[in-house]
Amino acid sequence: MREDDGRRLDHRTLEKLRFRAMRWVEEGVRPPEVAERLGLRRSTVYGWLAAYREGGAEALRARPVPGRPPKLAWEQVREVLVRLAGQGPREVGLDGELWTRPVLCALLRRDLGVQIAPVTLTRMLERAGLTAARPLGTAGLPPALARWRARQLPSLRESVRAEGGTLYFLAHAAEEPAPDGPGRVRLGMVSAAPGKGATRFLLVGGEVSGPDVAGFCARLVLDTRGPAAVVLDGRAPHRTDLLAALAAGTGGALRPVYLPQVTPS
After folding, report:
1. Cystine design at 254: which of 77, 98, 106, 247 (Cβ 3.0–4.6 Å)?
2. Which of 96, 169, 91 has the alpha carbon at shortest distance from 131?
3. Structure pTM?
4. Hey, CA dihedral for 60, 63, 68, 69, is it positive or negative?
5. H or E element that contains 162
6. How far is CA 118 from CA 60, 163, 247, in A?
7. What is the pLDDT of residues 97-140, one digit of tens each?
């Protein structure tokens, strides 16, 4: 069995493999088994799956490479992100209250004149410590979270789905390492990941605070059809009186759901 990431294959062959892999996933085959069938690394298949969920079938197609595109350095991206702190797409002339990776890529193309793929942008953000939220997985969960996931998450998902809403998992992150130099602002990120669809996020200047989380959730309600049930950590800055008051004033449109407390081992 071949154990590689497929980069030695030509673009058309890779396109066929991507479509075949996503067809198997939609038929119920788990991504690790898809990777084994194709002789590829699991990370490759999971990367294709993330791209497919964000951009649909178009994200799987091979793209012509007429020449090496100009590279975009992190410092160039970072300058734009610092200007965007506290602002959503609507404030800069685009649609929506919160960012997704494709929308942020469109803004970078507009402002810097350089094309960047969502997957590349994700890698740049993660290398800087700005890792976006992900749905709660199964691997390595503390016992309290594992029980919550097994016993309460299925019914929560079903009730939200029955009301035509969306279930999100919220997280926050900070730029690592903190930037050196006078006047350099440390970037923070608040993000929410649904089970399916694009992860939404907002950048902030400095450490993520309670008001940042509440402001993000207010925007999330505007960006969501139906109720937005948001799974949060039970500690600050996620659990605040400000967020509770915001949720109470939305008439059920915003529904915070707190994970059980986990005692550090």
Report:
1. 247
2. 169
3. 0.72
4. negative
5. helix 153-162
6. 12, 31, 32
7. 999 999 999 999 999 988 889 999 999 999 999 999 988 877 78
